[in-house]
Amino acid sequence: MHEPSKMPANPRGMAATEADAALQAALCARLWDTGLDISEITLDVSQGRVTLNGAIGTPAQRDAVEACVRGCAGVGEIVNRIQVAPDRTGD
């Protein structure tokens, strides 16, 4: 494991973990602004790779979440593991 001061830097000069944290915060803000019910969605960011997990109500919403993430600068690969579960809330 690298010491924090020896973490590989990204092109913007931030340590990789700082860049991932900044990207995750930006993604959370973007997703919140969509108005979608993302209460059951989690995302993990590692070296620009974003993994989406959880459940959402429709295939269109699943696609909208991925499109929102894809449109954010700094995102490399996306692994979309969001399941479509229309009855996930028990309604």
Walkthrough of the structure:
The protein is α+β, with helices and mostly antiparallel strands and 91 residues long. It has helices at residues 16-33, 59-70, and strands spanning 41-46, 49-56, 78-84. It has one domain (11-39, 54-91). The protein contains 2 helices and 3 strands; from the N terminus they run αββαβ. It has a 3-stranded mixed sheet. The relative contact order is 0.18.
* Strand order, sheet with most strands: 1-2-3
Structural class: alpha+beta
Give Rg in angstroms. Answer: 15 Å
Number of domains: 1
Unreliable spans are: 1-11
Task: Write the H/E string, N to C.
Answer: HEEHE
Strand content: 15-25%
Largest sheet: 3 strands, mixed
**Level of helix content?**
25-40%
Number of helices: 2
Summed over residues and divided by their number, the pLDDT gives a mean of 84
Task: Give the gist of this structure.
The chain is α+β, with helices and mostly antiparallel strands. The protein has 2 helices and 3 strands, in the order αββαβ.
Which key terms come to mind for this protein?
91 residues, alpha+beta, three-stranded mixed sheet, 2 helices, 23% strand, elongated, disordered N terminus
